[in-house]
Structure formats: structure tokens, C-alpha cells
């Protein structure tokens, strides 16, 4: 009797829910998937840009973008490509291509940068510009449609002249708009532009510092370095090291190098020569190692080692042409001193 009652109830429940399940058209199912993907993507942006007073957390952002990717969210796929740039350029390229084919303007921007700088693909500035123009058009239209989280990206394109004539004033305007909407990364970008394009009065210095500080407090890694550097230059070494360590813990190379340099002389940190030398080696700062051994700074003078590290530095083809010229001159001089050709 109980079995019959259970079967009857099961049949009744099935009859009640079946029409709603069966009536879900493919379009409705697709819409639900789109909404789920977008919800996850927006959550990822909160951690990527520090929206809604969230601390920036790239690992959490990446996790949400990965979840959104499973629902086919094009911009989430593009964000994953951007995060992988210069770490796994092949995978970044494949993701950016997939995102662009799905209509992502951000994906087209990532592809443009890859062609611009020859990351994984052959350098081709003509192809890069085609992708930049496509990205700019899509992003501009999406902002007009209310997707204001793209403001920082559009500002970035004006900043570097990607797909549009470079316009620093327009970039500042858009960064400010984005910052006012809670975009922490835009605060850093605005501060960076002020540093390089404004007359640096005392008031402007203070404005720049507070933009960086606001962003640093939200865990923005480059801003943490900038705040640390500001305090070091002001002679406030303990405060400086506090922020540099926060940046270094997130893997920011410049912060790690500055802490290593401070460790040579014991400013804000204990003297630790072994730590400093290891950091320079791991981070491939071969120029500094060459300099230390050339002049015997903190280490016994060793011209053979100095030459070795200068040659490594030169082989790494630094972007700084003046530095490359200086390194080549040092190599020539040391070879002459050591009687080498």
C-alpha cells in the first residue's frame, strides 16, 4: 500500500513539473546560461578591479572567470588570456582568439597586443592595428550600452594610441570616470599618467601619492610598490619596506629587487648579502651582480664574475638602449683588463 502511494505521488509530481521543464525552449536555456555566465564574470571583475570595496585578488578573479568561461562568456575568456600574457603566451593566444571569435572587444585588444609585440605570434603591427580598431569599436559601443566596467580599457587604448589616435587628456578623463565608479586599477593608471605628463607641484605630488595609497590599500600590487618607493625616497624606511613587502609577496619584480638592494646596506631590513645575491640571480638582475663584483661592493672584487654577469645582462637584450651601450662598454673594458678578446 505504501509503495502504491509513493508511486502515485511520484507520478503526480512528475506530471506537475514536466510541462515547465519541457516548455523551456532552447532560447530560454541559452538566456539562463548567459545570465549565469555574466553573474560570474561580474564577480570576477569585482576582485580584478576592486569594485564594491573588494580587495583586489587576482586568484579569486581568475577562479570566477574560469567559471564564467564554462558558460561561454566571451569577455571572461579574454580576461583569462590577458592574465596569462607573458606567462603562457600560446594559451593566451588561443583564448584571445576564441574570445574574439565570440565577439569580445577585450579579446581583440589582447590579440592586438600580441601582434604588436610579437608574443607567441610573429610581430605584425598592421595586423595588430586591425585588432585594435576592432576592439575600440566594440568597447566604445558596449560602454554606450551601459557596460561602464570597460572605461578603464578604453582609457588604456587612448593612453597608448591603440585603435585610436593617442589622446592623453582623453585617457585621463576616462580613467577619472572609472576611478570615480570604484575602479582601483584606474586610480593607479591615473597616478601613473600624472607622474609622466603633469607639472609635479607639491599639490600634484600629494594627489599622486594619495591615488597610489588608495589603490595600495585595496591590494593593487604596483601601487603598493609605488607607495613603498615614495617612503624609501622620503627616508621612512620602515614604512617603505612594509609596502614593498606587500608588493613583493604578490611577486612584483621591482619590489623584490628594491628589497634586495636595501638588504645590501641594511636600510629598513637587516643586512643580508646572501639573500640579496640570490634575489638578483633569481630575478635575472645580472647588471647589478656585475656591478657588485666589478667594484667589490659587499662582495670580494672579482672581475671574472663581473664580466660573466655583464655578458649575461647584455645577452638578455634590455629594452634600455643606453644601458645596453653601457654594458657593452663595460664588457669591452673588462676583457681588455683580463687580457681576453
TrEMBL record:
Name the keywords, alphabetized. Answer: Signal
Q: Does the keyword Signal apply?
A: yes
Q: Which InterPro entries match?
A: Sel1-like, Sel1_AlgK, TPR-like_helical_dom_sf
Q: Where is the signal peptide?
A: 1-23
Q: Which domain of life is it from?
A: Bacteria
Q: Which Pfam families match?
A: Sel1
Asked if the keyword Cell membrane belongs to this entry, the reply reads no
UniProt xrefs under SUPFAM superfamilies: HCP-like (SSF81901)
Q: Report the protein name in the record.
A: Sel1-like protein
Q: Which organism is it from?
A: Pasteurella canis
Supply the source organism's classification: Bacteria, Pseudomonadati, Pseudomonadota, Gammaproteobacteria, Pasteurellales
